[in-house]
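This section describes the prediction task in plain terms. A model, or a person checking by hand, is given the sequence of a single protein chain and must write out its three-dimensional structure as a string of tokens. No templates, partner chains or ligands are provided. The sample shown here is typical of the held-out split.
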Amino acid sequence: VVSTQSGHYGRGTSSVPGQKECDNAIRNLETLNNALQDPSVPVNSENFFDCIETLVHNQRLLEDNLKQLPVLVKANDRKKFAVAIDEINDALSALEGATAQTAYLVGVSDPNSTAASPGIVDPELYTTADKDIRAAVEKLSSPDLTQQDVGGKKKKVPTATLR
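The expected answer:
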């Protein structure tokens, strides 16, 4: 789903303010899942408590920037929207790294640890949220976007994210 859609987003809209940042974020999300699949290798030199601190800090950054998106859309501030997308991307990368490192540390600290089984994350909900976010980002990045369009779309990204 992600690879098919990311190819679609790159066509013909790369000159739209914020599109590059959105494309980078989409590519980043594609790689985040791969890094979390094999926690048998350390990803950085952080200890467990550093990882927790990184998680808390970047979760706050992610939350703050997600809350800003509707405000920036309403103000039609595409440059700040692009900056917010970059900051969301950076926060997601840091969260992924800290999560993978934490999984590694927990795994090596217990000699009885085994590979994880599927988690409690609802893949269908994730897929739906992913599609909703991508559709909203594509529409918000359109050069033909009107203020009336913004009114109907401004809540789509945070709503899909915070289900």
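For orientation: Confidence is low (pLDDT under 50) at residues 1-14.
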